[in-house]
Amino acid sequence: xxxxxxxxxxxxxRSSGASLSLSWWQRSVFGFMVLLGLFGFLFGPQMLDEYYxxxxxxxxxxxxxxxxxxxxxxxxxxxxxxxxxKGQTSAATTGKSFEKIxxxxxxxxxxxPTHPSISGTTETxxxxxxxxxxxxxxxxxxxxxxxxxxxxxxxx
Length: 156
Known about the structure:
The chain has 156 residues and is of the alpha+beta class. The protein has one domain (25-155). The protein contains three helices and five strands. Strands 3-2-1-4-5 form a five-stranded antiparallel beta sheet. Helix 2 (24-56) packs antiparallel against helix 3 (122-155). The longest helix is centred in the C-terminal third of the chain and has 34 residues, at 122-155. It is elongated and about 70 Å long.
């Protein structure tokens, strides 16, 4: 016996457990896109900041305003055109041990005049610059593994 909805020409509702039926390659592409999106979300802002600093970095004086024990990070403050900005970096980038850094100590940081809230020390920039090729290599390796997987699946 047909249900009333079917008798009236209304298609029956899908059950709540129904899922989209995607082929293996569609699921693979979707998974790869999710991974790329996650990668961009996690590392994109940092890489964009590094790009801005690489274009127009200028030095300015900053002052240590706080320390985070256990993590070895310091927070600094600097002024550009009367506006106050804050940044943070590893204590190791100052050339002193964390214990020897005091709140109020001077520090030279680099900032981007077109985006003054973006700043970092020379050592921080060097660390980010050395990370970029590593992240690019990971992206290439993941892409190559994905292509190998797709090729293998297409043979089945």
